[in-house]
Amino acid sequence: MEVNYKYLRIQGQELAANTMFAKGVFSMCWQLIQNDVMEEEDADLFRELDDWFAENLPWPEPCMRQENVVCFFKTDNSEEMMKMIRPALWLLERYEHPYYLVFTNTPGEIVYEDQYQVAVKAPGKLVIEAVQPGWGPK
């Protein structure tokens, strides 16, 4: 069974304090730079990538206002964006920083949309549920 997903988010294991949601690819790379983990040549590479995205990917208004949102790329027309983000993924791998590609058709309540991405309301609270009884082999 083949499923065509509409949205993709690249995120890590750590949570952003403002959203209580997994940090995205840009935040993870900036954190590596700010924590002096990334070598200067690699940091320069990421800054170039970030500049390219700043020029070519619209900045969502909810993000500008620092609202409680997270962004997902659209998969149907973001081929160029995915090509340009690959070096950032390479940097995360180089510095052994775990990340996940999260594909979904239901990202949440969309509050912003453009040609390449959507911004959705972050849940705003972290829910930790108990493991269901009977989970796993008996």
Give a description of the structure.
The protein is an alpha+beta fold and 138 residues long. Helices cover 34% and strands 23% of the residues. It has helices spanning 25-34, 40-56, 61-64, 79-94, and strands at residues 7-15, 22-24, 69-74, 100-104, 110-113, 117-121. The two termini are 29 Å apart.
Short summary of the structure?
The chain is of the alpha+beta class. The chain contains four helices and six strands, in the order E-E-H-H-H-E-H-E-E-E. The longest helix has 17 residues, at 40-56.
Low-confidence stretches: none
Q: Sheet with the most strands?
A: 6 strands, antiparallel
Radius of gyration: 16 Å
Pattern of helices and strands: EEHHHEHEEE
What is the helix fraction of residues, given as a range?
25-40%
Strand content: 15-25%
Spatial shape: globular
Q: Provide mean pLDDT, rounded.
A: 91
**Distance from first to last alpha carbon:** 29 Å
Number of strands: 6
**How many helix segments?**
4
Structural class: alpha+beta
List the main descriptive attributes of the protein structure presented here.
6-stranded antiparallel β-sheet; alpha+beta; 138 residues; single chain
What is the element layout, followed by pairings?
Elements lengths: L6 E9 L6 E3 H10 L5 H17 L4 H4 L4 E6 L4 H16 L5 E5 L5 E4 L3 E5 L17
Helix pairs in contact: 1-2, 1-4, 2-4
